[in-house]
Specification:
Blueprint (H helix, E strand, L loop, with lengths): L4 E7 L7 E7 H5 L7 E2 L7 E6 L6 E5 L6 E5 L7 E2 L9 E7 L2 E6 L13 E6 L6 E2 L6 E7 L5 E8 L13 E6 L2 E10 L1 E6 L3 E7 L5 E7 L14 E2 L6 E7 L5 E7 L7 E6 L4 E4 L1 H4 L5 E6 L5 E7 L9 E2 L2 E4 L6 E6 L2 E5 L5 E5 L8 E5 L5 E5 L4 E6 L6 E6 L11 E7 L13 E5 L8 E6 L5 E6 L6 E6 L10 E3 L7 E6 L6 E5 L11 E5 L7 E2 L16 E6 L5 E6 L20 E6 L6 E2 L7 E7 L17 E2 L15
Parallel strand pairs: 1-28
Antiparallel strand pairs: 1-49, 2-3, 2-25, 4-5, 5-6, 6-7, 8-9, 9-10, 10-11, 12-13, 13-14, 14-15, 16-17, 17-18, 18-19, 20-21, 21-22, 22-23, 24-25, 26-50, 27-28, 29-30, 30-31, 31-32, 33-34, 34-35, 35-36, 37-38, 38-39, 39-40, 41-42, 42-43, 43-44, 45-46, 46-47, 47-48
Length: about 650
């Protein structure tokens, strides 16, 4: 039987994006005339990665308005966007391009031949048809397609048939070219990503130069490049001292639009680089200096420049971040809901959800009504993370209080939070609560509590031995006033993020005990509460294989019927070029499920973000009220999210 219920999860940064696609007159930029942005999309959900179809601002782009990324077309004067052909069963589409009535795009709906390979490949379809053709050879991985001016040649950023090596700060892709008429004959021309054509023989692309600066390079193809000796040595065109990414070339090859990061700002901006004068023209820094701007594109005749950014507080469109929003699910009876918060846990009845909202703001512990219509503050002014609602007590929530992602000896405490549930009503915003600390202050890092189904015990991770292992403690008194505590696991490794099964028979957790020297690889382990029957699940490959020892699997929890495990894993690689996106700590993090014996592995999410901290409930949540900006419910959308933290100008 297919799994059922409702999965709650968090996506890093995504609720705050509020992206829309905007347009500028390119001639006004170059003539230093006054600039006025023209909004091309309608403010519904997020809209991004656009391309012009013509010089009348007809736009093809990606939107997530249906719960997954789909391809849309806007023509001037259209009241609603037109849905374009898509790959059947796909929950991820990206980088659409229209050329000569044909649509080219990335999709991630076909499972690769091995784990640790991205599902991303390039496809095409007629604009007025649904016959989708795969252009990427089976077994290969392609990102970021670009089509030459004639439509005869296609360039991609390709990972080839190699297994993903774990890279994402600079994805090790190659520029590969093939003819639209024969995509099987491919030529690798040089290392790089995000290609863009000028005419039919010049390609610009980005990569990190040897001096550490992301830069744009130029490649001029020989007339008969198929028979030429390859790879070809490209020429760097942007100078050191400024990071330049995601180029878009004008048709005459004189200008390239780029996204930049400079030392004098923490924001990403769009600039025009004049290739002849070797000079930058700043664009968006003059218009919206405190917004990030991404992935420029130029119209076929170089009349318009486009890009996407946070839509702004003064524009029309959705202006609130919903507490809960629906995301498309690949399994009919399994509902997927994204939260504006992390580490969700259901109340015993499923009517409420406890979350941690914003670690930076010390927003503590909050409770959200499960239909997303109301939120209450329970504990403010303290950093809390990883919650567990007592299955037996509707007024008791366990959480970790203290800094997250710290060493074994950093003081973090397990807390029992009690409150009056009658205060969860429409008249209140703040809920008073009592905080009872269950662990001794001198025992280091105590975190990640999970309550037993009878409500009597808590399993948690502690650094009290000098290593991070699991312990079981009394749920009421902790290790004080006659309460009991005992070790569940012991050893010089990391055991973390435990989850107690709803039937009480098993505890699942993540551990690197199979390779204690590597704090980057974690697998799922199961153990009984008495410490017996410890076993490791082998999800990416057979025991002892290279694949299984590359697993990075965290945030594991059980299905309500105890038949399945839900977790975040790196098995599917990276779905898009991470440098083209806001910050994602682990852009390979996607939700998966598997049975308790490791069989039946299935992927639940496909996107370019980091999904994690899931909870799986039996509750059938009423989703009719779940929409961005409905009746003013939700946090104000301010566009506050981070640039990739691994991009530094301190070079």
């Amino acid at each position: 039987m297919d799994p059922r219920g409702t999965v709650l999860f968090n996506t890093v940064g995504r609720p705050s994006y509020g992206f829309d696609v905007v347009s500028l007159d390119l001639h006004s930029i170059l003539s230093s005339s006054s600039l006025k942005e023209h909004l091309l999309t309608d403010g519904v959900s997020i809209n991004f990665n656009g391309q012009y179809v013509d010089d009348d601002e007809t736009l093809v782009y990606i939107s997530e308005r249906t719960g997954s990324s789909r391809i849309y077309l806007n023509r001037p004067g259209m009241l609603k966007p037109e849905v374009l052909p898509f790959a059947k069963g796909s929950l991820f589409h990206d980088r659409p391009v229209v050329k000569n009535t044909r649509l080219y795009f990335v999709s991630a709906h076909e499972q690769p031949d091995k784990p640790f390979k991205s599902w991303s490949a390039v496809y095409s379809s007629e604009l007025d048809g649904n016959d989708v053709v795969r252009l990427t050879p089976y077994g290969d991985v392609d990102y970021s397609p670009a089509v030459s001016q004639s439509g005869q040649l296609i360039a991609v950023a390709s990972y080839g048939s190699r297994p993903w090596s774990g890279d994402f700060h600079e994805l090790k892709t190659d520029i590969v070219i093939f003819r639209e008429s024969d995509p099987s004959k491919r030529k690798l021309v040089c290392r790089g990503g995000w290609p863009t054509w000028s005419g039919n023989s010049t390609i610009f692309f980005h990569r990190k130069a040897d001096d550490g600066w992301w830069s744009i390079f130029r490649l001029d193809l020989p007339e008969s490049f198929e028979s030429s000796e390859l790879p070809i040595t490209p020429r760097r065109v942007t100078p050191p001292g400024v990071h330049t990414f995601t180029p878009a070339a004008t048709h005459d090859g004189k200008l390239i639009a780029v996204a930049t990061r400079r030392r004098d700002t923490s924001f990403r901006h769009i600039e025009i680089f004049d290739l002849q004068a070797e000079k930058f023209h700043r664009v968006t820094a003059l218009l919206n200096p405190r917004y990030h701007h991404y992935n420029p594109f130029v119209s076929p005749g170089s009349r318009f420049l486009g890009y996407h950014r946070f839509r702004g507080e003064s524009t029309q469109g959705e202006s609130r971040i919903p507490y809960i929003e629906q995301v498309s699910s690949p399994i009919k009876e399994l509902r997927m809901l994204r939260l504006d918060g992390s580490f969700p846990t259901y109340s015993p009845t499923g009517e409420f959800i406890a979350i941690n909202h914003d670690f930076d703001a010390k927003s503590g512990l909050k409770i959200v009504k499960s239909d997303g219509s109301k939120r209450w503050n329970v504990l403010k002014g303290r950093t809390c993370f990883y919650n567990s609602w007592s299955p037996r007590e509707k007024n008791v929530i366990y959480t970790s209080i203290g800094p997250i992602f710290q060493s074994a000896n950093t003081t973090v405490q397990i807390a029992r939070i009690t409150f009056d549930p009658s205060n969860l009503n429409d008249q209140t915003e703040e809920i008073s609560a009592n905080v009872k600390i269950l662990t001794r202050e001198d025992t280091g890092n105590n975190a990640f509590p999970s309550c037993s189904p009878d409500g009597k015990f808590i399993v948690f991770r502690s650094g009290r031995s000098g290593y991070k292992n699991l312990y079981i403690v009394d749920a009421v008194n902790g290790e004080f006033d006659g309460g009991s505590i005992r070790p569940l696991t012991e050893g010089p490794w990391i055991d973390t993020m435990p989850s107690w099964s709803p039937d009480g028979k098993l505890i699942a957790f993540s551990s690197n005990r199979h390779n204690p020297e590597n704090a980057e690889t974690f697998s799922i382990y199961l153990i009984r509460p008495d410490g017996s029957d410890l076993c490791r699940l082998h999800l990416a490959g057979a025991e002892g294989s290279d694949e299984v020892n590359r697993e990075r699997i965290n945030h594991v929890c059980f299905s309500p019927d105890c038949e399945w495990l839900l977790f975040t894993a790196n098995i599917g690689g990276v779905t898009a070029e991470p440098v083209s996106l806001p910050n994602q700590f682990q852009p390979y993090g996607e939700l998966h499920i598997a049975r308790l014996d490791g069989s039946g592995l299935r992927r639940l999410t496909w996107n370019s973000y980091e999904d994690g901290t899931p909870a799986w409930g039996r509750t059938e949540i009423d989703i009719r009220g779940l929409s961005l900006g409905r009746d003013g419910v939700g946090d104000k959308l301010t566009g506050e999210f981070d640039e990739p933290m691994w991009i530094s100008c301190d070079i």
